[in-house]
Amino acid sequence: MKTDRNAPCPCGSGLKYKKCHGNPLAPAPAPAVPVVAASSAAILMPERVFAQALEHHTGGELVQAAALYQDLLLAHPRNPDVLHNLGLVLFQQGDFDAALEQIQRAISFAPARLEFIASRAALKVSRGEHAEAVADYERVGGALDGDALHNYSVALGRLGRTQAALAVCRQRIAQAPADARAHGQLGNLLTDAGQFEAAERAYREALRLRADDSATHSNMLLMLNYSEHLDAAALLREHRAYGEQHGGIWHSLPPLHANERTVSRRLRIGFLSPDFGEHPVGYLFEPLLANLDQSRFEPLLYATRQRNDALSHRLRATGAAWRECHALSDAELVGLLRRDRVDVLIDLAGHTAGNRLAAMARGAAPVQISYLGYPTTTGLAAIGHRFSDALIDPPGSDAGTEQTLHLTGGMFRYAPPPEAPEVSPPPLLNDGRATFGCYCNFSKVTAGTLALWAQVLKATPASRLLLKAAALADADTAAGLLSRLAALGVAAERVQLLGWTGYAEHLADYARIDVMLDTSPFNLAGNTCEALWMGVPVVSLRGARPAARMGASLLTAAGRPEWVAEDENQFVQVACQLVKDAKALAALRVGQRQALRASSLLDGASLARQIEDHCQRLFAAWAAQAQPLAAQARGVLHVGCGSPEAGKLPAYFDASIWRELRLDIDKQVAPDFVASTTDMHVVPASSMQALYSSHNVEHLYVSEVPKALGEFLRVLEPGGFALITVPDLKAAAERVLRDEQELPMYQSPAGPINALDMIYGYAPFVEGGNAFMIHKTGFTCRSLAQALTQAGFERVVVRSHGFALWAVAFKPAAGDGQRP
Hints:
The protein is α/β, with parallel strands linked by helices. The strands form 4 sheets. The protein has a 7-stranded parallel sheet with strand order 3-2-1-4-5-6-7, covered by helices on one side. It has a 7-stranded mixed sheet with strand order 16-15-14-17-18-22-21. A 6-stranded parallel sheet has the order 10-9-8-11-12-13.
C-alpha cells in the first residue's frame, strides 16, 4: 500500500511524505571500485530496491527495510536518501548513535535537504540534546509541520522556554485541531507554567480524541497531584478511572507464568524505570540496589530511557543485569520480562514521565509492586502492592487499588552523591539577613505555596527568596512569578530567580540559601535530601494527601520531625526560628551530615532487608496458589493468523507455556489448519485451551457471527477461553456524530485509520481489490458480550481499549452444562 505523498511522513520527521523518505532515489555517483558484495538488483535496479525497502519501512517491517537499505549502500555509499532512511530505521529501532551517524552522513552529502535536518532534530530530542535540536528546527524554519512541530515544542519546553513552546504547540493545533498528541503537549506545557485548570482542559481534549493514550492520562494524573482544587477522595477516583480505562482485559485472563515455583531459590527482582541516572528517583533508588543481597536476589534493571552519566555507571557497576528498553513497545517489553522470568517486578515511575504502566497492566510478572517515583496509587488492578510508610499512607486510610506495604523508617533512603561539595556556612552568617529558597519543579509552586512563602518573608522583613527551576529560564514565566509575588507583598528586589544548572553546580548552589521552604500540596523529595546533605534545613507543611506528606516522612527519617509543621502558622514559626540565630544555624549545618549518617534516611541496609522480606513472602504466596505448569504446552488456536510472523500473538501467550496452532482460509500462509471461521471442522472438538481472534469477526455477515462463535466454543476444551478483538463501533460512531469521520483516529502499521475505516473496512485495502477486508457487521461492548453469551460462553468480560473491543469469554467447565 502506498502512502499519500502529501500526508505526514511516517518516519516522524514532521515533513510531508513526498519531501521526506518518499523521495525517489536520486542518482548517485558510481563507486570508484565496483563493490561485489552488493546484490545485482541494488547495482542495476536501485529504484526498484529502494521502493521495496520503502514499502517494508512504511509497513513497520524494519529489519527487512534495513537489510535492503544496507544493500543499496554497498552499491551507492554516497546516496543521501538511502543514508537518511537507514538512519530513520535505526532511530525507530532505538540505536540512536548509529542512527545519528547515518543521518549526519546524509546531511554531509546533501546539506540543503531540510527534511534531513528535521530528522536529526527529532533524534536529538530523543537523546535529550534539546539545545541542538532547537537549533536544527530553527534552521528548518517554515517547512516544519506535524511531528516536527511537536518535537520542536517539546525541546523548547525542556529548555525552560515555556512561552515559545506554547506558541509552537498552538501552531500545531491550529494546523491539526484533531491531533491528540498536540493537545497532550499543550497540557504538559500549561502544567509547567502552573496553569492547572487550563492544563486539565487540554488533557481531557487529548483524551477525548485518543481515549487509549495512557501516557497523556498519566500526565493528567500527575498534574492533578499538583492542583490544590482536588481533595484526596477525588484524586483517588481519578486514579481508579485510569485503571478502568487502561487496565484492559488482561487481568481477566488466567494468571499464567512460567516462573519456577521453588521459593528457596535465588529470586529475580526486576526494577522498571526511566530514571536510572542523575534524577531524584535514581539517587533514592541507589541505596536499595547497593544493599540488596545478591546471593539471594538477582536484580535486573529495565531502563526505559537511555542515560549515560555518573550515577547510571554506578548502578551498572553493582552487577545488576541492565536491559535497555526505551525502544520496546509495551508488548515487546512484556515479552522480555516474561522471557527473563522476572519473579517480582517493581515499578519506580508510577504516573511520572516515561512510565510503562501499560505494560504492567498486562501482568508481566507474578508479583507486581509500585514504589518510590510516585506518591499515590497507580489505579491498576494488575499491580497488587505498593511500598509506602505510615506517615504518607496512615494505617486504615484508603490508599487506592494496591495493598499498602508499610516500610519501617520511612519509604525513602538517600545515597549522598560522591561529587557533592563540602558544606558551606549559611549566608546569614556573613550577610546578616536570611535567604530562604526552593529548588524544584516549577509546577509545584502553586498559589498556596507562594502565599505561604510570602507569610515567611513578611515575618522576616529583611529576608530574601531565591527560587531555582528550569521554567524560570523563560523571561515571561519569571516576570509572571515576580508579578504574583508582588501581589502578595513581596517586592521584586527581595527575589532572585535562577534557571536549572548542571548537577555539580546545582549542589554548590545550596550554599546560597539558609533554609529550604517545601512546596505544597506536592512536597519535594530528592531536592529535600540534597538540601539536607548540603547542611540546609527544610521546613515542610504536612497535608491531607500522600504527596503532601512526603516531607514529613523524609524529615522524620532524617531525625528532624521538629521541622514538620501541622499548619501554616507553625510553618512560619519554624522557618523564622531557624534563622533567628546565625551561629546556631552555622553549627547545625556543620553537624548535619554526621546526624544524617546516623539516621534512617541513610540506612539503605534496613530498607533492603524489608523489601527482600516482602518480595520473598509475596512470591511464596503466589507460588502456593499458582496453577501448576502442564507437562505439555497448552494449545492456542490463532484464528485468521495471516503470514507466520513473530509478535502477532499477545505477549500473554508465553511460548514456554503455549503452543501456537494457526488457522487461516488462505493456504498460501501455510497455516496448520485451512478453514473459515464459520466452519472449523478440521479442528477437533475440545482440543484447544485457548483461542485468539484479532479483527476477524467484523468481516462476517450478521447471520454468520453465531456460527463462528459456536465454532470458537466447540474447539475449546471445558474451562478454556477465547480472546477476541474487534473494532469499537461506538467509538467510531461518536466520531461520526461530531462530523470527524474522516480525521485519523490512530496510526496503524498500514496507515492512519479513521472512523469510516473502522465501520466499513480499511479503504486503501478495499479499494485495492481486497473485498474480504470489507466490514459486514460491528459491535459495542454490550452487543459483543450478548453474542458471546448467546453462543454458550460464560464469564464474559468486554473492555474498550485503543478504539477496539477486547473480550475474554470462557467455555463452561465440565459438568456445567456446556454444549458438545
